[in-house]
């Protein structure tokens, strides 16, 4: 049973002062839960260990996919394969951050990987900032939290220069390189998240700029803002798979930019391998004895309750749950139905006393660095609630 502590919520005005404007869902309910999940030190350590081990497994699995040319199996668009290979071959293409979605981890339930949001994960703002604000508002010890997301990402930005664990080398190698940050105009959540990342990079010592994606200029010589200022790095909060499908010309230009070493793109193209839920099947093939993995196949599973997922689905869209005898039990519609499917063994999420379900999210930036939860029903969707935590 998930243990909850009722807290004094932050008022909408306080949230907006922090830059958090998406605090109310479309049904006028509050997006931020008025409770915190209580975990133990051992449970926090277990989440940390799981995410670190899973990331190492993803790296090995990605190498396996590239060596064996398994891009089709993962649903990877053909026009990004060269970009993926190029970014994988050179360490300068640094993975800044991602988020593991996990079941279990509370009340001695085993931790199980559901998926890895490696390219454009949501809830960064909430996890990195709001959890601290909630503890402070309730006069709780702010150190009683598994949450160093801000600091971890800051150090990881430095690693795009040092390429080493020792980020003290950053000052010796840093020579004023610039990062341009971009999101789509009109999406408040994505813009706030992108500007938070910009602030983190600025704190790390970079010169930074922001430009809406629509106004960024590209040619084979590099990436420029609307005023023709050139940037060595470009961070885009825009999924690689959407670039491949909706902006094929941009996919070609970005591949050429990488080939010409005119700019480095963050998160790198190879994170599309991690993002694909097809990797869940590759992981299970390579590490069938891992305690963190659920049985996964490209075909419906025989004799067990299982979940059908689109390899690039988001926010619970196009999820179907089947019984052991393949009867449809639950489903969520969505726009990702044309993508390749993967089938994963079903696992129960932790529940509170009211029956609400909880999914853990662990951010990863060189190492596991922060925990938060989503509260919802059997299929988590964009109406699920953000829940902070504290270590009792």
UniProtKB/TrEMBL annotation:
InterPro entries: GSPS_pre-ATP-grasp-like_dom, PreATP-grasp_dom_sf. It comes from the Bacteria. Residues 12-391 form the Glutathionylspermidine synthase pre-ATP-grasp-like domain. Keywords: ATP-binding, Ligase, Magnesium, Metal-binding, Nucleotide-binding. GO terms for molecular function: ATP binding; ligase activity; metal ion binding. Gene3D superfamilies: 3.30.1490.330. This is Glutathionylspermidine synthase family protein. It comes from Sulfurimonas xiamenensis.
């Amino acid at each position: 049973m998930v243990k909850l502590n009722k807290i004094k919520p932050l008022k909408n005005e306080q949230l907006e002062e922090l830059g958090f404007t998406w605090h109310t869902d479309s049904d006028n309910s509050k997006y931020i839960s008025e409770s915190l999940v209580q975990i133990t030190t051992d449970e926090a350590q277990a989440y940390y260990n799981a995410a670190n081990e899973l990331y190492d497994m993803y790296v090995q699995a990605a190498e396996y996919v590239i060596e064996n040319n398994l891009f089709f199996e993962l649903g990877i668009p053909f026009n990004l394969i060269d970009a993926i290979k190029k970014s994988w071959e050179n360490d300068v293409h640094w993975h800044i951050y991602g988020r593991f979605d996990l079941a279990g981890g509370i009340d001695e339930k085993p931790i199980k990987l559901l998926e890895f949001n490696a390219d454009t994960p949501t809830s960064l703002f909430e996890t990195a900032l709001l959890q601290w604000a909630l503890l402070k508002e309730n006069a709780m010890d702010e150190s009683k939290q598994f949450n160093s997301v801000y600091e971890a990402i800051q150090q990881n930005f430095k690693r795009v220069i040092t390429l080493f664990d020792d980020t003290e080398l950053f000052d010796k190698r840093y020579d004023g390189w610039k990062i341009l940050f971009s999101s789509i105009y009109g999406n408040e959540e994505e813009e706030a998240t992108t500007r938070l990342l910009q602030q983190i990079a600025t704190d790390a010592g970079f010169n930074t700029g922001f430009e809406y994606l629509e106004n960024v200029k590209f040619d084979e010589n590099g990436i420029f803002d609307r005023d023709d200022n050139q940037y060595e790095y470009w961070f885009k909060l825009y999924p690689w798979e959407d670039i491949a499908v909706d902006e094929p010309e941009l996919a070609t230009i970005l591949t050429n930019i990488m080939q010409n070493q005119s700019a480095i793109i963050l998160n790198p193209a190879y994170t599309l391998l991690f993002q694909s839920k097809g990797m869940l099947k590759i992981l299970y093939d390579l590490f069938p004895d891992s305690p963190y993995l659920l049985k996964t196949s490209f075909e419906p599973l025989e004799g067990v309750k299982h979940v059908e997922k689109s390899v690039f689905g988001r926010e619970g869209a196009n999820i179907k749950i089947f019984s052991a005898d393949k009867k449809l039990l639950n489903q969520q519609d969505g726009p990702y139905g044309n993508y390749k499917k993967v089938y994963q063994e079903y696992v129960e999420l932790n529940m509170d006393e009211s029956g609400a379900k909880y999914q853990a999210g662990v951010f990863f930036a060189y190492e596991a660095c922060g925990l938060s939860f989503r509260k919802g029903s059997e299929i988590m969707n964009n109406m699920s609630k953000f829940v902070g935590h504290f270590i009792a």
